[in-house]
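User: Can you help me understand a structure? I only have the sequence.
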Amino acid sequence: MKKLLLFFMALCATGVVQAQVKFEDKTTDALREMAIKQQKLVFIDLYATWCPPCRMMERDVFSRKDVGDFMSKYFVAAKYDVDKTTGRELMRRYGEGSIPLYLVFDTKGELLGRILGGAKAETFMENLRAIIEKKRTGQAK
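Assistant: Let's start by predicting it. Here is the structure, written out as tokens:
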């Protein structure tokens, strides 16, 4: 009985993980290739383990099913720690010194938009929708 209960709990936990934002553990080039194949945009989360707003976003926003569903529809996503090489380089190139910083790129590698700081899930998705809309209408910069 104990084994059955543990199996059921593990199965439920797996379902919860699938409902969250799926961050790929890949290089930026591999991420771009995935986006090309899937015809999606590239989303990059620049964060640090010591950053309270970054932890809040992970806990309160990226863990939500609606955010996960939205993100998987439009983006191939990855996250990079700004205290490590790739994150540090992306922050140097695209950042303004504050984290969390969210970057959206097209499949050519052009920056379409950035979102600075933590936000509630609804606000975060509205900001992403605005970037998607600018891309759709050709106004992205």
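Now, to help you interpret it: The radius of gyration is 16 Å. The beta strands are 23-24, 41-47, 75-81, 101-105, 111-116. Let me know which part you'd like to focus on.
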